UniProtKB/TrEMBL annotation:
The keyword rRNA-binding does not apply. The lineage of its organism: Bacteria, Bacillati, Actinomycetota, Actinomycetes, Mycobacteriales. GO terms for molecular function: 4-alpha-hydroxytetrahydrobiopterin dehydratase activity. Belongs to the pterin-4-alpha-carbinolamine dehydratase family. Keywords: Lyase. It holds the Pfam family Pterin_4a. SUPFAM superfamilies: PCD-like. InterPro entries: PCD_sf, Pterin_deHydtase. It is an enzyme of class 4 (lyase). HAMAP family: Pterin_4_alpha. This is Putative pterin-4-alpha-carbinolamine dehydratase. Its EC number is 4.2.1.96. It catalyses: (4aS,6R)-4a-hydroxy-L-erythro-5,6,7,8-tetrahydrobiopterin = (6R)-L-erythro-6,7-dihydrobiopterin + H2O.
């Protein structure tokens, strides 16, 4: 899969399908509030498994029940299709119960 950096227009278009995500410079971020601490850790485990399979890894910040995912393709210095695909996968996983 190509890891070409997305244009501003491509990022804006991609974010229309990712309403929970916000752009900050060269990354996109989403915070999920889990029902419990363990549910948040379960989500992190599911995301970690998907990220490992995709060989594309988010930055993850865990604060009790709040889990923040930040995506950027560091090797190209910005956002790529890999980030958009993983954001969609995180959305799916966040919608699943722990």
């Amino acid at each position: 899969m190509s890891t070409a950096q997305l244009t501003d227009e491509e990022i804006t278009a991609a974010l229309t399908d990712l309403p929970e995500w916000t752009r900050s410079g060269d990354s996109i971020t989403r915070t999920v509030e889990a029902a419990t601490f363990l549910a948040g850790i379960g989500l992190v485990t599911r995301v970690a498994t998907a990220a490992e399979a995709a060989d594309h890894h988010p930055d993850i910040d865990i604060r009790w029940r709040r889990v923040t995912f930040t995506l950027s393709t560091h090797s190209v210095g910005g956002l790529t299709r890999l980030d958009v695909l993983l954001a969609h996968e995180i959305d799916l996983l966040a919608g699943q119960s722990a």
